[in-house]
Amino acid sequence: MKPADLLRLLALSAIWGASFLFMRIVVPELGAINTAFFRVLFGAAGLVLILAALRVKWRFRGKLGAAMMLGAINSGIPFALYSLAAKVLPAGYSAILNATTPLMGVVIGALFFGDKLTGRKLAGVALGLTGVAVLTRTGPLAFDAATVLSASACLLATACYGLAGFLTKRWITDRGGLDSKLVAFGSQLGAVTLLLPFFAATAGLRGGSLHGSAGIWLALLALGFVCSALAYILFFRLIADIGPVKSLTVTFLIPLFGVLWGWMFLQEQLSWAHAAGGILIGAALLLVLEPAATKMVAKSQDRIDKPTSA
Question: Are the CB atoms for 266 and 21 separated by under 8 Å?
Fold first, then answer.
C-alpha cells in the first residue's frame, strides 16, 4: 500500500470515527430525527457540489429509483438509529458496535441470499456477538433497558448496512452498474425523502423551531459535508486504488478513532471492556473477511497466470 493510500485510509477512519462524536454532540440539542435528516440533507448538498466540480454527467440510466431505495436502507434508517442510540451510548460504544457490519452481512447473506455459512464464518459471528455482550454488560455504562435498546439500535443499523450490500449488487451491479458517485448522491436523496416526513412531524411538535448554538450547527455541518459527502469520495478513491478487500480494513480502524475522539473531546470513560469487546469483534472480522481476501487474491493470480490474447 502506497503512503498516499495509507494516509487516505487513516483519514477515512478518523472521519467516520468522528461521526459518532458529532452525533453525540448534536443529538441532545436537536434530537435524533433532526440530526439524521440534516446529516443526509447536507450530505446530498455536498455531493451535488462535488459532482458539479468533477463535471460528472447525471446519467442514472434508469437506476435512480434503485439508488434512492438503497439510500433509505443504507443511510436513512441507520443514521436515525445511530442518532437514537447517541442519546444513551458513548461515541466509542457506537463506533465499536458499528464494526459488526460484516458479521451482519454474513448472517443476512446466509438467511436470504443463498450465501454459504461456513464454520469459519459461524465462529466469527459467535465471537462477534460475544464481543458485543462483553462491551454492553461490563462497560462503564449501567446494564439496563436503555443500554440494551440503544445497542440493539446500533446492531439493527449494521444489519441495514449488510442488507444494502447485497441489494446494491442485485439492483445496481447486476443491472450494468453505475458511477459510484451517482449511487452515493441517489442514496442520499433517497434518505432525505425517507426522513423528510418524520422531520416535518418532529419540527411541528417542537413548534417549528430548531434551537442550537453555532457549535452544534458546525458539528452538524461536519457530520453531513465531511462524514458523508467527503467520506464517500475518499472511500471510492480507496476502492479504485487498493481494491475493495483492503478498503474493508477501515472497519478495524473506525472503532479506534471513535473511542479516541470520545475520550479526547467528551471525556468519555474508558474501561477494559472497550479493549476486550473491541478485540473480540476484531478477531471475528478476521475470521469473516480473511476467506474473501484469500479468494480474491487467488482469482487475481489466476488471471495473471492465464495467457492473454491480443
Answer: yes
Check: CB of residue 202 under 8 Å from CB of residue 32.
no
The label of the residue with cell 468533477 reads 54
In contact, 44 and 242? CB cutoff 8 Å: no
The three grid cell numbers given for residue 180, joined into one nine-digit string:
459510484
Which tens digits make up the pLDDT trace of 192-226?
A: 999 999 999 887 666 555 777 889 999 999 999 99
Q: Can you give the pTM of this predicted structure? A: 0.85
Residue 126: other Cβ atoms inside 10 A: 13
Who contacts 119 (Cβ-Cβ below 8 Å, separation ≥6)?
none
**pLDDT reported for residue 245:** 54
- What is the per-residue pLDDT across 118-163, written as a single tens digit (0 to 9) for each? 888 889 888 988 988 888 777 777 788 999 999 999 999 999 988 9
- Residues 6 or more apart whose CB falls under 8 angstroms from that of 274 comprise 92, 96, 135, 139, 259
In 3-state terms the chain splits into helix, strand, coil percentages (rounded to 5) of 80, 0, 20
Q: What are the grid coordinates assigned to 81, written together?
A: 438509529
The CA distance from 167 to 187, in Å, is: 12
Residues of the chain predicted below pLDDT 50:
293-294, 296-310
Torsion sign across C-alpha atoms 155, 14, 246, 8: positive
The three cell numbers of residue 135 are: 462491551
**pLDDT of 26:** 95
Which three cell numbers mark 51? 459532482
In terms of Cα–Cα distance, which of 166, 153, 156 is closest to 70?
Answer: 166
